[in-house]
Amino acid sequence: MSSDNQSTTTGIDLQFDRDHLWHPYTSMANALPTYGVVSAEGVELQLEDGTKLIDGTSSWWACVHGYSHPKIVAAMQQQTAQLSHVMFGGITHRPAVELARLLIEMTSPRLTKVFLADSGSIAVEVAMKMALQYWQGKAKPNKQKILTVKNGYHGDTFAAMSVCDPEGGMHTMFGELVTKQLFAPAPQSRFDDDFNPKELSEIDNLFEDNHQQIAALLIEPIMQGAGGMRFYHPEYLRSLRKLCDKYDVLLILDEIATGFGRTGKLFAYEHSGIEADILCLGKALTGGYISLAATICSNEVAQGVSDSPAGVFMHGPTFMGNPLACSAAIASLELLKENRWQGQVRAIESQLKQELADAIDYPNVKDVRVLGSIGVLEMNATLNTAELQQQFVDLGVWIRPFSNLIYIMPPYCISSSQLSKLTHAMKTVAKQISLPNDTSAFISHG
């Protein structure tokens, strides 16, 4: 498949795309190549020239059931014909009610109040606003800071940016508009290793010194995603829950990337056996078919928000509770309730561990790690995204590296042979990078 950005017979004008369309984290002066997709089914993307690529990313971790699943498609078609959108102010509808019912059943008992918004970043914004209003309702308005850990990622909007990694994130370029939060060291004990309680000392000190100003602790449970695909020990998360209880701080868990089975549990916090005060969901909530997010909180948090001077929660997006998105989410969650995902994810994890293990012997592979349906090769230097992307396309797969990581998070319905094609491609490219005197692939390209 050529990426020469020429117009094609399908009508995808790649030159116009290059000249006028801004893609994520891309320069308009030196745009990354794009590949025209015309259809998708199962785990395959079809390009404009007929080439089919096995999708190793689930479209940024969202399409857990694969593409064109008949149950989700039918639910969306039926809902579009009936009611695609209506304002949520003063109006409700069956898809929103049924989705909330499912989410309350699936998550932990403490979580009972559901706020439906547009995207993961907004779910985090909503959670942070809930935390601040809660403490206003508890007559502790000075509790306005958020405590989090380094290497985290929670979205690109301004409040969400403020709790992303302060060095690798976007704090410096947006100056004083990004609120200064409190950051503890990133968790270090690996998921499958012994836990070192000494790593809690600094975050414990931050709690002790600042708890009167801390409204909430916000963290991605078990896996730090865009901050490095790092899997940390469940005991670390259990310890954070205890610290929040000790110092009277809310616990916000960002399950946008980890939720709905990705780590081998329905929700990653289940590895630690804890509950959140506020939970953020997104990405796979609709099976990746349309944007939707949910922020779910406890009765206590909802009461505190309602007792705040405003008397109401101060947030209300135009597309809140969109019926089309809610219908897609209901269909996706019903597929999850059939529990096939559990066997699928276990099989993916087993195969990833087996097929990626020997990559640790490659000269420029720093680490190999697997959790649930996530497989990661961490390299010793930053990768050239454009160059490696073309290599993966040539190998018949869609794998998009970032920073120094080659990783996959495939749809759960992937076959063993399709998964082997992904792991073979990962190792082929990683080994090629590792050739002596080959430094070209380590040039950062955004």
From TrEMBL:
Supply the InterPro entries for this chain. Aminotrans_3, Aminotrans_3_PPA_site, BioA, PyrdxlP-dep_Trfase, PyrdxlP-dep_Trfase_major, PyrdxlP-dep_Trfase_small
Q: Which GO terms describe its biological process?
A: biotin biosynthetic process
- One Pfam family this chain carries? Aminotran_3
Q: Which residues bind pyridoxal 5'-phosphate?
A: G120, S121, D254, P317, T318
- The source's domain of life comes to Bacteria
Subcellular localization is given as: Cytoplasm
This entry's Enzyme Commission designation comes to: 2.6.1.62
Q: Does the keyword Transferase apply?
A: yes
Catalytic activity, per the record? (8S)-8-amino-7-oxononanoate + S-adenosyl-L-methionine = S-adenosyl-4-methylsulfanyl-2-oxobutanoate + (7R,8S)-7,8-diammoniononanoate
Q: What Gene Ontology terms describe what this protein does at the molecular function level?
A: adenosylmethionine-8-amino-7-oxononanoate transaminase activity; pyridoxal phosphate binding
Keywords noted in UniProt = Aminotransferase, Biotin biosynthesis, Cytoplasm, Pyridoxal phosphate, S-adenosyl-L-methionine, Transferase
Provide the residue positions that the database annotates as binding substrate. Answer: W60, Y153, K283, G316, R400
- EC class, as a word, reads transferase
Return the PROSITE patterns for the record: AA_TRANSFER_CLASS_3
The pathway to which it is assigned is: Cofactor biosynthesis; biotin biosynthesis; 7,8-diaminononanoate from 8-amino-7-oxononanoate (SAM route): step 1/1
Cited SUPFAM superfamilies: PLP-dependent transferases (SSF53383)
Q: Where is this site: Participates in the substrate recognition with KAPA and in a stacking interaction with the adenine ring of SAM?
A: Y25
Q: Which family does it belong to?
A: Belongs to the class-III pyridoxal-phosphate-dependent aminotransferase family. BioA subfamily.
Q: What does this protein do?
A: Catalyzes the transfer of the alpha-amino group from S-adenosyl-L-methionine (SAM) to 7-keto-8-aminopelargonic acid (KAPA) to form 7,8-diaminopelargonic acid (DAPA). It is the only aminotransferase known to utilize SAM as an amino donor.
Whom does it interact with, and what assembly results?
Homodimer.
Q: What is this protein called?
A: Adenosylmethionine-8-amino-7-oxononanoate aminotransferase
What organism is this sequence from?
A: Shewanella pealeana (strain ATCC 700345 / ANG-SQ1)
**Source gene?**
bioA
